[in-house]
Amino acid sequence: MIVTNTPDKPLVYTNCAYCSSSDLPHFIVPGSNLALALVADVDAVLLAQQLRKRFINQVLTSGQRVTFEFLGNGYIFTVTQVAVEGQEKSDVERGMLSEDSYIVFEASKSSGIKITNQREAASSNIFKHKEFNLQSLGIGGLSNEFADIFRRAFASRVFPPHVASKLGVKHVKGMLLYGPPGTGKTLMARQIGKMLNGKDPKIVNGPEVLSKFVGETEKNVRDLFADAEQDQRTRGDESDLHVIIFDEIDAICKSRGSTRDGTGVHDSIVNQLLTKIDGVEALNNVLLIGMTNRKDLLDEALLRRVLYISIRFQVEISLPDENGRFQILQIHTNKMKENSFLAPDVNLQELAARTKNYSGAELEGVVKSAVSYALNRQLSLDDLTKTIDEESIKVTMEDFLNALHEVIPAFGASTDDLERCRLNGIVDCGQRHDHIFKRTMLLAEQVKVSRGSPLVTALLEGPSGSGKTAMAATVGIGSDFPYVKIISAESMIGLSEPSKCAQIVKVFEDAYKSTLSIIVLDDIERLLEYVAIGPRFSNLISQTLMVLLKRLPPKGKNMLVIGTTSEVSFLESVGICDAFSVTYHVPTLKTEDAKKVLQQLNVFSQGDIDAAAEALNDMPLKRLYMVVEMAAQGESGGSAEAIFSGKETIQMSHFYDCLQDIVRY
């Protein structure tokens, strides 16, 4: 062993040194039983000068091994790459070494040699391939996000370590991927780990780190960084990149004080992560990737200190746009197309346009559902042993359209809930109702094209049963917005005030992930738990609604909020009316309005319509339907089917009796 550095300089001249057991881990031991190692810093400039002098005008071939003595040490060089000026585009296997040639040195990982003072540099070989195609990796619709990740997390690592050192920058040590479930966060993290030419990534589910034993959780966190610590201790800046992937990081990095176990384990985990990444002996060969769909659960100090100082940046993996959905569908149907199982009538571009707000996982579910339809056509329940003709299996466009009805996006329009709000369909209720409906639809069109008003709010107020909810639901369905949700008190029965607020906030947060969204706040006074006696209402929910009604959505996202109420005076007193941009009064039916409705229902004779409409003056629409339903049953019941089919008509005497039953005097 040639001693080049010892604690005591005189020992260098003896070519001997004493190594204690605690010193041995600092030396790289070759792959043998020998407890000796060569530890040396080699000056690249001096080495290149001697190499040019020794092999001037000699032809070197790629793969050739050369022995060379430098400062009393014997070295073996392997020519890994040859580049000749003017022939960069062609693969050159050999070249002549001249005085103008420059040489880039790379030390073997197990040699213990550290190259210093290297001015020219080849790019770092941290990726397994020179170039890569995201679609070949199964990643679609995330080109912009991946480009951002590469620029901020890997650009500095592509260059040799000394370049980053001279620039005075530190490598990004991690990132947070957050977004709705099924958008490809875990897939992207796994593929990033596979693309890197370093150690295999460590994939850790958040709950796996936790342990019931005291101190074991912190030890599990330390063990994740043990290999990286050993690698950096022995190889320094030349060590491989160690990727640690934390799936569901919110399970172990919750907001401090939110858990009531009294152990403080979650706080200790955050402190342990800080120590390993930003401590005194901070690691520079680690890339920590955290993933969550609940960024709001993460500790604020973690987001501020760890994710902005240590992890550096956050990347939102949002719902794919139309082009992204097209790429995802291409990925999942690629093998079908190659094996001629995809019918020629399948139009992926049309499917991408139809699947608004579908996540990547939901698009995969659409493809699987379509395949199940195609396979089911080849099966017979009467004879499951029947021979299957593979060539006849074709996944058609009809299969995909049927699959769209089965796979409903989590962030899509809740069409079933909206249809339930207008069970009687849409009828012409007169000019006043038609005017309000058209004005509200214009607000939806305004939201689609508006650049200066990303948030538009409208309040529909009027007597109970006047058709406010049905009108709001019709606007939501007719607008063709990808995200439409209705918030009503019936979905929050039994919940506490904080739980109701959390549910309302979640709907708004989900809406912010869609480019266009409509939220219907049905019966706001019921959401506020309003009781006239007292009066009593929930101030917590009231303040939550007022904040959300004035909170602008993120850039590039537009939203329409439609509220309905039968207690407009109460909302004015608590200040909620002021939070809405416009307010429309939905009136009761006048005689001429009721006549139009009755004509469309076709349950009265022509001679009785005018009298019936006069009796229904100033009647809410919902109550009109109730009177008609009651009167259609007849004196002894059982005549409703004949009346609604047009074979019979309602008797006026029975109609007046029913009217008296529901009208309060």
The CATH class of the largest domain, by name, is: Alpha Beta
Biggest sheet, spatial arrangement of strands: 8-9-10-7-11
Fraction in beta strands: 5-15%
Q: Tell me the number of structural domains.
A: 5
User: Radius of gyration, rounded?
Assistant: 36 Å
| CATH architecture assignment name of the largest domain | 3-Layer(aba) Sandwich
Protein name: Vesicle-fusing ATPase
Subcellular location: Cytoplasm
EC number: 3.6.4.6
GO molecular function, one term: ATP hydrolysis activity
Relevant terms:
16 strands; magnesium; Helicase, Ruva Protein, domain 3; alpha/beta; 665 residues; cytoplasm; 5-stranded parallel sheet; Vcp-like ATPase, Chain A, domain 2; 41% helix; ATP hydrolysis activity; Rossmann fold
Secondary structure: elements and pairs:
Elements: H1 10-14, E1 40-43, H2 44-55, E2 59-61, E3 65-70, E4 73-78, E5 94-96, E6 113-116, H3 143-158, H4 161-167, E7 174-178, H5 185-195, E8 202-205, H6 206-209, H7 216-224, H8 226-235, E9 242-247, H9 265-278, E10 286-292, H10 300-310, E11 313-316, H11 322-338, H12 348-354, H13 360-376, H14 397-406, H15 415-420, H16 431-449, E12 455-461, H17 468-478, E13 483-487, H18 497-511, E14 516-521, H19 524-527, H20 539-550, E15 558-565, H21 568-574, E16 582-585, H22 591-601, H23 606-615, H24 621-632, H25 640-644, H26 652-662
Parallel strand pairs: 1-6, 7-10, 7-11, 8-9, 9-10, 12-15, 12-16, 13-14, 14-15
Antiparallel strand pairs: 2-5, 3-4
Helix pairs in contact: 7-9, 9-10, 11-12, 11-13, 13-14, 16-17, 18-20, 22-23, 24-26
